[in-house]
Amino acid sequence: MEILVCARRVPDTSENEIELNSTGNDIERDDLVYSINEWDNYAVEEALQITAKVGGNVTVATIGSEEDEEILRREMAMGAHHGVLINDGAFTGSDGHGIATILAAFVRKGHYDLVLTGVQAEDGGAQVGGMLAAMLDYPFASLVNSIEVLDGKLKISREIAGGNREINEIDLPCVLSIQTGINEPRYVGMRGIRQVASIPIPTPSASDLGIDPATVGAAAAKVRRVDYFLPALGKGAEILQGSREENIDKLIELVAAKGGLK
Amino acid sequence: MLEGIQSPAQATYWLVSGQTLFLVIHLLGLACFAYIVARRLTPLFRAQSDFRFDRPFTRLGKVLKFWLGQWRHPRYRAAGIMHILIFAGFILLATRAFSLVLGIADRVALPEGIGHLYDIIKDYATTIVFVCMVIAAGRRLVFKPARYAVPARYGKAHTADAIFLLALIALLMVGDSLFAASKAAFQTRLGQPVDFLAVLSLPWMLKNVLLSASLPTLQHLHLGGFLAHDLTFFFLLCYRPFGIQFHVETSLFTVFFAKLDRGTLKPVRWDVSDEHLDQVKSFGVKTFEDFTWKHMLDFYSCADCGRCSDNCPANAVGRPLSPRFITIKARDYAFQHYPMLGKAGNGKALIGNLYTEDEIWSCTTCGACEEECPLLVEYIDKIVDLRRGMVDDGNVPQSLQKPLKALESRGNPYGKMEKKKVDWTRDREFQQTCDVKILDGKNGADTLYFVDSITSYDDRMQAIGRATARILDHVGTSFGILGAAEKDSGHDVRRFGEETLFMALRDHNVNAIKDCGVKRIVTADPHAYNALKHDYKDVPPVEHISQAIAREVKAGKIKFNPVENGNVYTYHDPCYLGRHNQVYDDPRDVLDAIPGLKRVEMTRSRDRSFCCGGGGLMLFYEPKEDQRIGVKRVQMAAEAGANVIVTACPFCMVNIEDAIKVAGLEGKMTAIDLAELVDQQIAREPQAVVEGHGFSRAVRARQDSGL
Amino acid sequence: MARIFAYIVHKAGMVDDSAAELLAAARKIDPAAAPTAIVTGWGTDLDTVCTTLQSSYGEVWKIAAEPLAYPNAELIRKALVKVLPQGSILLVAHEHFGIDLAPGLSIKLNSMFVSDVLGIEGVDNTALKVVRQEFGGQVSAHVRCDISLGAVITARPGAFKPLESTPINGFVLDKSPEVGALAAGRRYLETVVAEAGDVDITKHNVLVSIGRGIQEKDNVAIAQELADALGAAVSCSRPVVDAKWLEKSRQVGTSGKTVKPKVYIACGISGAFQHLAGIKGNPFIVAINKNPKAPIFQVADVGIVDDLLEFLPEFTNKVREMRTVAAK
After folding, report:
1. A259 and chain C: CB distance < 8 Å anywhere?
2. Of the candidates C81, C16, C46, C78, the residue with the CA atom closest to the CA atom of residue C174
């Protein structure tokens, strides 16, 4: 089975304290640590486990520039057979629709039985997988937390409310968005990355993929972030000083306002 | 009527002359033994290299102390004394055995006087060994010490095998004694000069029993005793390499080639330097053949005494690790896959077949097993090598992947930002009393305080950092910290098998340390201390803060206010300060220098200290266990009658403070770091300090604030 | 202004809470909006749902088809493409169904997609301005979206407060005949219900988390009752697991789970570093602790210094009371 995993390099929220820059138009990126989007890492591990069982190759592709190559190396150190850096200045500033457009063009150039994405990215919104599938007219399933390969199709389960699982059958080729916890991704250390350091990584451009630059990039993006701001945050707790009853009323009000009384 | 008793050499056994028969037995026995040993050595030649040929005199010293001197045996009183007796008996009887089986002579060719003395010795030696066999069998069958038990998951009990071996040795002694006794009885009956037999020895008693036997019976017993001894001897010789008795042959070599340097770890490959490690295809131990030859020798030498596991904290709380079976399982693997006949080796992965992942991750590397092993069998290096193999295969628990990734990207396991590394010094109250410099090579401090991750970032442990800094300040040390330039020491990164990441952290720190131009390093973290001392090269000498304090106390630079709280203190030895670095006395001396401080020792202290649960990455690992190791430890402190546990390691503090709560001892027991206690008790009277020299800012601040 | 629709999720004849929230979201886009509800399904349950929705939505579009008996987003997407007018705005709740349906639908409708919206600040010409969260909720962002070609918007459940309104008498429009035959490359087989006790605390928006302050195993029930009343799950700190009062799967912290709830109610948790490291996504933290110096108060948003064994039951009662009132 030929599997494509679409991955992204993102600031790692578990190792960063995200702060705003002085103008508020972006986060402070100087001290940030980047890594592969956590969901995408699970997707690669899943792809590797599938090909280990049924054979085939895993290709990891990302849209970005030279600095994004590191995540491809990391996933190749995990065992991915190929890494592809889809790189063109015209892609800069693409919104979800633009990213899906580029990936769809890339998928059409190859022969993939299965395309995996992460459910969402740290700064995105669970959109690319579904858009990509629709552009390709492939069946799609989101929040996938198990995959079993059958003949010409897959048996998958989706994570739904309350820890329940929805079992589906889906025809190949298809696009799946992978949920964390589907597997236990293997560890990749510096040593593994060094060992794949010299493997060439192709870098197809917009023209290589037959993409009209007008359909992607910042100019084509119709969904745009205007600014960042910090959610209200107090220093230290506001200690409720009322009677127990007053405190409870106040607390219910606060919790409800934060979506805790759904 | 017979003229004299016929010696086995002269006799005829089933139409074969004794001389021929015994020559055949002996040659056959030796040939078998040689073949068996050669087969046993096969895996050692396929093993990884191991550099064990340096410092021959130190090694000889080890042999004299631990092998000939049986140094560690009395740590288990009864079994130890018995082993010493048996060992001594064997050594003494070795000459006799060789004379019997080689020369088939009646008497060792020793000068008359010495020969006579030797006769006395060997009679008693035989007797003692025999008695020991009976007692040992009794222990195994009746008293059944817990440490010999084999938990179900490790297979069947080893009792039958043990009893069989004891019986064989007893038979050896009886055969020998019967040989001598029957001859003496024979001589007595004929009124001939009687060979000397030591009074109340086994042969002497047998002789007296046999005095009434007929002469032909005695003759038969004489020949039979010899044959029995001879056959048993060669049977044992060839049987020993199939079980724990092989240590009789191998222990001498195991001790000679034992690891000489505490606190160190073996390199990934002895035959590959750090710079060339990238070219090594596979790291660590994945298959049996990835062990070094010395480690394989260890497997053969294990006598299955169970002392390692008896002292193992992981084993004590039901983690799936028993060091004894790390060895026994590997030995059985060697026996099975390197058989006497047929093809050797199968190259199968050890993890998942012989060992489980959890088994290998469960070790805290506290070193209690190695400290106890009478034969100096190594464990930590093997565990780390197995972990290296797992890390190389990407086989790392999810709970450890996060901190490892954070260490790679951020230089600390918590993923905290580098610039926050100095936050602990920014505490307002602290900053007014003690100004901690950040060293950049220009501000001329001669001492580096290496803080390490946990003390820098953990709210609770930051207090240890501040106490340490105030102490250094009090004694007038010109010191500073690396601040954001300091990365995790990598001590436990290395011990968890991530050598490449460790090397990156080490190289970064070594450069940072060199750049700051200090002459010495102090740390309050024994893990950092051990790393700087043993894992790093070319850094200035390093001291643990307890050593520095002890020195300053002795020099009179630190004076203490008396403790007046009625508390009973006990000192918990951190593994990487105590066992791995032998710093036992300095912290105790410091405590004893505090007037009025009442200190008790826990039963398990000093080199038998019981691990707190493990530091470094062990804090992130989720072991399968019935109980937390730390809970056992605080219970030990309670049993000793203490209500304050003093330790000298931030990781011990995490584990012990948690354990106090879990054990329900909150309010009854507290934990304090040695540096914190010292900082509390230091007498900072202004008159004791000469103005302008070593004048503590703390004192000034207190004076200013009117305290 | 484009026509606004709200796709309403329902189960066993019960309308999802998001129905009222999406209505509120629609009014944020256009205060004068009279959004149309769309429901899909089969059988009498669907009729019950339509009846319920009529009281809040002026117009309810019903798509009844046997293949839609189970909400398979792949089929529903095809159905919606056939019935939705060009340029319309569709609101969907951002949960497992919305995530499945919405992005692909936006492509098929040739409209925009904005996901996981927490706030809507209104429309300026053809630009819709919304609030989203990024980096696990550590920062918020204003996002502008051109809706001249229509849009599919998923709204974070609980983010839009239902409006107070008097019931209206809307009408139901049966759109089923427009849909035609439905088939997709993905077929629903069955639902596997999670085993009892198998609570995944990482997936809950509200956690009632207990520490050693809960004192003994029997008291865990006090927290569970509050959690039940809130629709939350009970999580805990390590000592609670060590004492075997709760399963390991409930533990938050470096050696436990990393959770990203919206609201975290820390009961009797001191707030050790190892525990706090497991709380991500900048939730609203409520700390209830007897000890006013407990470090948890440093990181909490709101603190109550009280005996939780007395406080929690009263809190629970009040929540229950409120729920009954709301239900009436």
Report:
1. yes
2. C46
* A 149-208 near C (Cβ less than 8 A): 155, 157-171, 174, 177, 181
DSSP label of C31: T
In this structure, CATH architecture of domain B415-554: 3-Layer(aba) Sandwich (3.40)
What CATH class has C201-327? alpha beta
Per cent of chain B over pLDDT 70 is 94
Tell me the per-residue pLDDT of C203-231, one tens digit each, with 9 for 90 and over: 889 999 999 888 777 789 899 999 999 98
CA distances from C179 to A138, B125, C98 (A): 20, 102, 20
pLDDT band at C273 (very low <50, low <70, confident <90, very high): low
Considering only residues A22 and A65, tell me which one the structure prediction assigns the higher pLDDT. Answer: A65
Residues of A in contact with C141 (CB under 8 A): 225-229
Does B393 sit within 8 Å of A186, measured CB to CB? yes
* Model confidence, pTM: 0.87
Strand, coil or helix: C304: strand
B403 vs chain A: nearest CA distance in angstroms?
10
Handedness of CA B199, B200, B201, B202 (dihedral sign): positive
| C37 conformational bin, left if phi > 0, alpha if psi -120 to 50, beta if neither | beta
Range list for CATH 3.40.50.1220 in chain C: 201-327
What CATH number matches the domain at C4-179, 3.30.750.24, 3.40.140.10, 3.40.30.10, 3.40.50.620? 3.40.50.620
pLDDT at B474 over 80: yes
Chain C contact for A244 (CB, 8 A cutoff): yes
> What distance in Å separates the CA atoms of residue B590 and residue B701, rounded to the nearest whole number?
26
CB contact under 8 A, C135 and A164: no
pLDDT tens digits for B129-162? 999 999 999 999 998 888 999 998 888 888 898 9
Given a contact as 3+ CB pairs under 8 Å, which chains touch A? B, C
What lies within 8 Å, CB to CB, of C105 at 6+ separation is A134, C77, C80, C81, C90, C152
Q: How confident is the model at residue B706 (pLDDT cuts 50, 70, 90)?
A: very low
State the CATH architecture for A2-220. Answer: 3-Layer(aba) Sandwich (3.40)
How far is CA B483 from each of CA A18, B468, C234, rounded to the nearest angstrom?
21, 15, 40
* Minimum mean pLDDT range among A120-124, B199-203, B437-441, B629-633: A120-124
Tell whether the model's pLDDT for residue C79 goes beyond 50: yes
Compute the distance between CA of residue B493 and CA of residue B403 in angstroms, rounded to an integer.
Answer: 10
In a mutagenesis test of the A interface, which of B351, B391, B405, B506 is the best target, namely the one with the most A β-carbons within 10 Å?
A: B405
Classify domain B274-392 at the CATH class level.
mainly alpha
C289 interfaces chain A, CB cutoff of 8 Å: no
CB spacing of B501 vs A189 below 8 angstroms: yes
- Residue C111 scores a pLDDT above 50: yes
Q: What is the pLDDT of residues B188-237, one digit of tens each?
A: 988 888 888 888 999 999 999 999 999 999 999 999 998 999 899 999 99
Average pLDDT over residues B467-484: 96
Chain A interface mutation, best of C89, C92, C113, highest count of A Cβ atoms under 10 Å: C113
* Fold category of B568-700 in CATH: Rossmann fold (3.40.50)
> Rounded CA gap, C274 and B613, in Å?
16
CB contact at 8 A, B207 and B177: no
B462 HSE (CA, 13 A, CB side) = 15
Domain spans of chain A? Answer: 2-220
Looking at beta carbons, which residues of chain A come within 8 Å of C318?
Answer: 248-249, 252
C259-281: average pLDDT: 83
What average pLDDT does chain B have? 91
Chain C residues in contact with A39 (beta carbon < 8 A): none
